């Protein structure tokens, strides 16, 4: 992605309030009726969420993408949506075995007007360990539906579908259009999903005006954007030799130990001292952070069916993958230069130290202005439907807003949806039914404000 000079938007880390004299319009009575329609669909919302969870769209490698798109296409076509399946041919990960399928469904109103687009990713991360429930059983226990992807973000997808269907039934003469997309690969960068669609013009501002991404940021919070990310692989070099005579070789793992020590002594303290004006949640993410994703040195691990001993060799290579999350006040080039400078310093001071660094990906921070139409609309809808003031937040990790912003050139985009952010990617992930209904009501009222006469 290209680097650019980022204009820092105006932030407000407190509660959102309506502008003085703001008129909620004539949507009150209509929204009461729409809210009742949405509440009446509780069982339908549960069933839809369970059906989505029970399709294991694991990424990697990208399983069952077509199955979930076909299921949604069948449902939405029957309700008057024109549906198109879009394969992201040539995108990272796309193959004949694991094609990157996306669904875009559009419902046209009775007359011209704006288009409101709900975008949800349909892929989920690996299951991991520690589950006490079937990860794809979609068990309903009280007010909670459990399963991988329940929170992140099939619950949000289901809520947007129910909200849109109820709105269309209540207001068949609305102006404009409603789109619902279910897209691939958000969990691995979104390049086989929203990035591909944006490159093909699906999010061009002349065809879509408002975008809501139902990521799990809590039902009374509006997410304006996210931090940036810079991923890289660092390899330290050595020389192979017999393990009983390591002095005849050069241990790449020890060189990597020096890199990690320099990170601990210099880079991590420097990052901890940097803080952002972005309203990032949780609080710990308001500073620069870095995670060591993986480390490997020496011989490959034994295959599961081999129980022999390793050979005696000095490792001539050691690799780590780093995940550096940066603030809107920083730049991706500056982040990279800081790591390279540290490695170059080691090269100058440490005997036989040599390295290679390979950038894997970069994501520039994205922030929508708090005065954007979709922000003020959802703000008012939260206040009216939930009886509370909304809060502006920013996400610690990136999501598909980056592609809608950078590639699609559409700034009027937020994340808003049900679910607790801290449950994402965790064992026994769940989403609350009441939270989904409340979020669907907010989405429905937002549609009324954007697509009905004032």
The unreliable regions are 1-27
**CATH class categorisation of the largest domain:** Alpha Beta
Structural class comes to alpha/beta
- CATH architecture level-2 label of the largest domain: 3-Layer(aba) Sandwich
* Beta-strand content: 15-25%
Oligomer description: single chain
Shape: elongated
Protein described:
With 454 residues, the protein is an alpha/beta fold. It has ten helices and 16 strands. The protein has two domains: 27-226 and 366-451, 3-Layer(aba) Sandwich (Aminopeptidase), CATH 3.40.630; 228-363, 2-Layer Sandwich (Alpha-Beta Plaits). The chain has helices at 27-39, 42-53, 65-77, 150-170, 194-199, 252-272, 332-349, 373-386, 401-406, 433-451, and strands spanning 82-87, 101-108, 111-121, 140-141, 144-146, 175-183, 210-213, 221-226, 228-237, 289-297, 317-326, 355-363, 366-367, 391-395, 413-415, 430-432. Strands 1-2-6-3-7-15 form a six-stranded mixed β-sheet. The longest helix has 21 residues, at 150-170.
Secondary-structure blueprint of this entry?
Blueprint: H1 27-39, H2 42-53, H3 65-77, E1 82-87, E2 101-108, E3 111-121, E4 140-141, E5 144-146, H4 150-170, E6 175-183, H5 194-199, E7 210-213, E8 221-226, E9 228-237, H6 252-272, E10 289-297, E11 317-326, H7 332-349, E12 355-363, E13 366-367, H8 373-386, E14 391-395, H9 401-406, E15 413-415, E16 430-432, H10 433-451
Parallel strand pairs: 3-6, 3-7, 7-15, 8-14
Antiparallel strand pairs: 1-2, 2-6, 4-5, 5-16, 8-13, 9-11, 9-12, 10-11
Helix pairs in contact: 1-4, 1-10, 2-4, 4-10, 6-7, 8-10
